[in-house]
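The aim of this short unit is practical: by the end, you should be able to scan a pair of folded records and say something sensible about each. We start with the first protein, listed as its amino acid sequence and then its structure tokens.
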Amino acid sequence: GLVTLAFGIFAAYVVALPWVGFRIATLAFLVALPTALETPRGLRGWVIVAIVALLGTAGTYYVFEHYLHVLLPRGRWTDF
């Protein structure tokens, strides 16, 4: 069940990329996947998920855009 759920979340991420852009889709993916696999307990758990998602998105964006010079998808709806 969890494997199917993880594939579904990943498929939604791939579909969302061209519409909302890399930053928003990745942030949502990095919140949705760990939350679906194991729901955070209490405020501390949610803060950890939020921090990991923000740092993961920002770090990946910075490395690919600024260091490797790889253009990441901008959203058609957001241009972000």
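Turning to the second protein, read its sequence before its tokens, just as you did above.
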Amino acid sequence: YDVIDVKGGMPEWFVAGVEAALKAPTAVNQQKFVFMLEDGEPSVKTKGFGTYLKVDEGIVAYHFEAATGKKMKNI
């Protein structure tokens, strides 16, 4: 996936969360975000520029959290 920045292996729950987030509709139908996993804690950040990037970040974080039951550390 182009939206993942993880060094090493990824647990199944993380992959499932990213897949759920990728299916989520975003405010401007773009995927300008990156998911990370550090010390077992997932996070997401936006990349680039745009009007609704923070809204999109919240949308994909919600879908990730709903699919995994894990809280994003930066949201």
